[in-house]
Write a structure and sequence with these properties.
The structure holds three protein chains of three kinds. Helices cover 78% and strands 0% of the residues of chain A. Chain A is mainly alpha-helical. Chain A has a domain of 96 residues: NADH-ubiquinone/plastoquinone oxidoreductase chain 6, subunit NuoJ (Four Helix Bundle (Hemerythrin (Met), subunit A)), CATH 1.20.120. In chain A, helix 1 runs antiparallel to helix 2. Classes of the chains: A mainly alpha, B mainly alpha, C mainly alpha.
Amino acid sequence: MEFEFYLSSAITLFATIRTITNTNPVHGLLYLIVSLIAVAMIFFIIGAPFVGALEIVVYAGTIMVLFMFVIMMLNLGKDVVKQEQQWTAPDLWLGPGLLSLALLLQLLYAISTGGFHTAAGITNIDVHQVSTTLYGAYLLCVELASLLLLAALVAAYHLGRTTENE
Amino acid sequence: MLTPDKIDSLAQQWALGTFIVATLLLCAAMLAVSYYLGGRYQGRAKNDPFESGIVSVGSAQLRLSAKFYLIGMFFVIFDVEALFLYAWAVAVREVGWPGFIEACIFIVVLFIGLIYIWRIGALAWSPEARRNKSPVSTNNHLPSNHANQTGVMS
Amino acid sequence: MNTLTYANIFTIGIAMLKAIIILIATVAGAGLLSWIERRVLGWWQDRYGPNRVGPFGIFQFGADMIKLFFKEDWTPPFADVFIFWLAPVIGMSALLFTMAVVPITPEWGITDSQVGLLFFLAMAGVAVYAVLFAGWASNSKYALLGGLRSAAQTLSYEVFMGIALMGVVMLANSFSLYTIIEAQKDGWFIVPQFLGFCAFVVAGVAVAHRSPFDLPEAEQELAAGFHTEYAGIKWAMFFVGEYVGVILVSALTVILFFGGWQEPALLGYKLWPDFLPVYPFIWFALKTSIFIMLFILIRAALPRPRYDQIMDAGWKFFLPLSLANLLITAAVILLQQPVAGGA
C-alpha cells in the first residue's frame, strides 16, 4: 500500500508541476487531468473509494471538460505558446513563488510539530457512512449547496450570453 | 497468515492492475505495429486538412457559438447535483423520510433553475430568428431567396 | 507479503489470467461485432454484406485488421502530434477499463468494487476527452466542429444517465454491481425501474456515439466529425472503442435491469424451475447479445434526428423524467419500509 501511495503522490506532484510549467494550454490541461486522477488514486488507497470515484466524475470528467471547451472555443493553440513563454519568465513568478515557499515551510513546520498525526492504519470509509452523515448531520449544507448551484446556473447563463441576436 | 478475504482482495487488486496495464499495452502495441508496418507515400495535396475536396481557406481557428460553453457550464452544475443525489440514493433507507424531504427540496430548487434556463431560451439551439417565425411565414419566403438558405445553416 | 503461500500466489495468478482473458474476449468480441453488424444490416436491407472471407465471411474481421495494420500511419503535419496520438488510446481504453467492474458470472469478473457503478460513470466521463482531444489536435474545421458537437451531446446525456441509474442503486442499496445482481434474485429491476431503463438505454446509445445519436459523425454535414483526419489503425481504435461501448452498455443494461447472470425471475416468482441446470455464462451472454442486436436494429430502423431535437430531448424530457423516477422510487421504498426505524 505504501508503495502505491508514494507512486500516486509522485505522479500527482510531477503532473502538477508540468501543468504550471507547460506553455501549451491543452498539454497543461492534460497534466492537470492526470494529476486529478492520481489524487483520486490516493483516495482509493487510503480507503475512501466514494470520494475517489466522485473526484474523477466531477473534476476529471466534468470541470476539466468545461476547461477544454473554453480552450477549444477561445482557440488557444500554438499561438499562445509564445505568450505563455513570456508570462513564465522568472521575474514574474519569483515573488509569488517565494511567498508560497514560505507558506509551505510554515505548513511543514505545523505538521512536524504534531497535532495532525492520526492512527497509522487505514480505515475503510463505507459509502453508506458518507451518505448518512451528509443527509443527517450536514442536512443544511446540502440545501445551501443547492442554492449555490442555482445561483451559479443563473449567473452562468447571464455572463456567458454574448449577444441577443447571434 | 492472510485470511481468505485478504487474499481475495489482493487477487482482485492484481487482476485490476493487470487488466489496466494490459489494455494500455494493447493500445501501444497496435499503434507501434501499424507505425512500422504502414507504408509511406507522398501526394500533392495530401498534407492539407480535409474539407471535402475544397482548398482550405483560413485556419481552423474558428469563432464558435457560446452555446457550447453554456452546455459545459450547465453540465458542471447538474453533474454536481447528480453527485449529491448519488450520495442520497445509496442510503435512502438509512436516512428515511427526513432525507427524502431534504432531497425533494434539493431537486425542486435545481428544477426551478432548469425551468428558468429553459424559459429564457438558454436550451434552445435553433437561432432566435428561426425560432420566432411561424412555419407559415418561413414557407412564404422560401422560393424568393434561395441563396439565403445556405447562409442560415446552424 | 512474506506470508504468501504458493496456493495464494496461484490464486492471484489465476485472477490475473482471467483479467487477460476477459480483455482479449472483449476486444475480439468488439472486432467480431463489426462483422456481425455489417452482416445483419445487409440482411435487413436485403443485400449480402461481407460474405467472402471464410464461411459466411466470418474472417472479415481478421482481413480488415491486417489491412488496417498495413495502412499508412499518417499524422497530419498541422496536428498536435502527442494529443493526436493520445486521443485514440483514450477512445479505446476508457470504456474498456469499465469492463474491470463488470461481473460476467459469479466466478468471472475482475474486481468487485464498492463503487462499481460510479467507476462506470467516471470512465464514461473520461471517454469524452477522446472526442475533444481528437477534435482539437486535428486542427481541422470538420474535426473541431464535430468534436465540440459530440462532446456537448455526450455531456447532455451523461447528466441524466447517472440520475437514471440511481433508482437501481436505491433498490439494491449499493453501487456494487455484484450486490445489484444479487438483489434481483426475486425479480428483475426492469419492472420497478422501467422509466430508468428507458432513460439509461437512450443515454447509453448516446454515450456510445451510436446511431441515431451519431451526429458528431453525421456524414452529410461534418464529413467524419472528430476523426476526419484519422486514418489506419488510429481510426480503427476509435471504431473498436465504439463497439466496446456497445458491448459494455448492453452488458450493463443486463446487469442493472435484467438480473445479470441469473435465470429469469419476475415479481418474486422464479420462471426457471429449480430442477433445470443453470448456466450463468449462457444467461449473461444470451441477454447481452439480445441488447447488442437491439443496438444494431436501432441503427437500421431509426433515422437521425436534428441536433437541436437531440439536445431538447436530453435536457427537457429525459432529465426531468429521471429526476421524477428517482423521487417516485424513493417514496415507494420508504412507504414499504416498516415505520419502526423512526422517521
